[in-house]
Design goal:
By secondary structure, this protein is mainly β. It is about 0% helix and about 55% strand. It starts with a strand and ends with a strand.
């Protein structure tokens, strides 16, 4: 047994390597469930209405836990604490609004506004997910109805297991 990082340990048994993180055996030879997706087609948000953001394009999805086709949600199969990041940017001029992480269909964490030649709303949180039924989604709300900016660097959703349960 050798320690690679503070929470990652490598075990060798019968010539097979097994990675563990935070005391939890990970799937895919030790690959922690991690994904990054972005919006590749603009989406219209109605004025002052929380709307699920559709992230249609995956940069990567190490354990196939992100649905980029139907529900636009992350449902990990490993219980633990996940670092979650999301950003939604308005395509036009300044607006006020919010971005939210929804957990199991309800608002769970709210993000902040960052002004950068328009309006970009950012959320970042550490969230426990049970590895079976919990799921997370990103919702946006613009005070004035307008389109999102469908750009890799402007409207995105990411999560990564940082410690097992």
């Amino acid at each position: 047994r050798s320690t690679l990082f503070p929470y990652t340990t490598l075990f060798r048994s019968s010539g097979v390597l097994t990675f563990q993180q935070g005391g939890v055996s990970l799937p895919n030879g030790g690959v922690a469930p991690t994904f990054s997706a972005y919006q590749s087609s603009a989406q219209t948000l109605s004025s002052s209405t929380n709307t699920k953001i559709q992230f249609q394009t995956e940069e990567f999805d190490t354990n196939n836990n992100f649905d980029s086709m139907t529900n636009y949600r992350f449902t990990p199969t490993v219980a633990g604490y996940y670092q979650v990041n999301g950003a939604v940017r308005a395509s036009a001029s300044f607006t006020t609004g919010s971005v939210f992480v929804y957990k199991n269909g309800s608002s769970f964490k709210q993000g902040t506004f960052m002004q950068t030649n328009g309006a970009q709303f950012i959320v970042s949180a550490l969230i426990y997910l049970n590895g079976s039924t919990d799921y997370i989604e990103i919702y946006g709300n613009f005070a004035t109805g307008q389109n999102t900016s469908a750009q890799l660097q402007e409207t995105y959703f990411q999560a990564c297991l940082v410690r097992g349960a």
